[in-house]
Amino acid sequence: MDKLIKIVILIVIICSVLLLLKNLIKTNYKNGESGNNKSIKEIEEYILNINSYKAKIKVTVKSNKNVNFYEFEQQVKFPQSAYQIATSPESLAGVKFEYKDGKLEITNTQFNLSKIYEDYPYVSDNAMFLTSFLEGYRSSEEKEIIEENEKIIMTYKNKKNKYNNEQKLYINKSTLEPENLQIYDVNNDCKVDIVYNEIEFNI
């Protein structure tokens, strides 16, 4: 009888140890898969090396009179070409903004028409592209990168443009993917907020 009890106790101990090991391995696997051990400097270098991407974004543009909302699909191969196609609102859907060889071409893909849409502030500006932010960050004399609440925030100032005086890029520390890009005017008012719903680097 004593021998049977000892065997049962031994089996219980072995099962407990195996269960503990399983949980430890699972936890370590998840941490290794979703986290990263990169320093801020390494993350900065990684982001600055992005030269092409495609993304789906939501954009909020604030003017003195109202607030407008847009959705775009972007594709960029820097410095060769960059374009974005509007998917929302309906009045703008199908309009394509394409930058190539230093020129901007705006076309309506639904009706095969070319037109300058002056009623959409910032939308036709190349500041809407992530690569434009990276180019400005590299060349700016006033820039910083910090970590805050599990996010990496890259900021630079451009005092030459009072409507685009400062830009901030928020990056998820675990995935190293941009979450949103904000553009501020000289009064420190956020005029443009770009949210990255989907993004794929170096396509």
Report on the structure:
- The protein is of the alpha+beta class.
- The protein has three helices and eleven strands, in the order ααββββββαβββββ.
- The chain has helices at 2-34, 40-48, 130-139, and strands at residues 52-62, 67-77, 81-88, 95-100, 103-108, 113-114, 143-148, 151-157, 166-172, 178-184, 190-201.
- It has an eleven-stranded antiparallel sheet with strand order 6-5-4-3-2-1-11-10-9-8-7, with helices on one face.
- The longest helix is centred in the N-terminal third of the chain and has 33 residues, at 2-34.
- The chain is globular, with a radius of gyration of 24 Å.
- The model is unreliable at 26-34 (pLDDT under 50).
What labels would you give this structure?
3 helices, 203 residues, 11-stranded antiparallel sheet, alpha+beta, 11 strands
Layout of strands and helices, then pairs:
Elements (H helix, E strand, L loop, with lengths): L1 H33 L5 H9 L3 E11 L4 E11 L3 E8 L6 E6 L2 E6 L4 E2 L15 H10 L3 E6 L2 E7 L8 E7 L5 E7 L5 E12 L2
Antiparallel strand pairs: 1-2, 1-11, 2-3, 3-4, 4-5, 5-6, 7-8, 8-9, 9-10, 10-11
| Morphology call | globular
In the predicted model, the low-confidence regions spanning at least 5 consecutive residues are 26-34
Strand arrangement across the biggest beta sheet:
6-5-4-3-2-1-11-10-9-8-7
Secondary structure: number of strands: 11
- Tally of helical segments: 3
Q: Work out the helicity level.
A: 25-40%
Between the first and last Cα atoms, what is the distance in angstroms? Answer: 69 Å
On the 0 to 100 scale, the average pLDDT is: 82
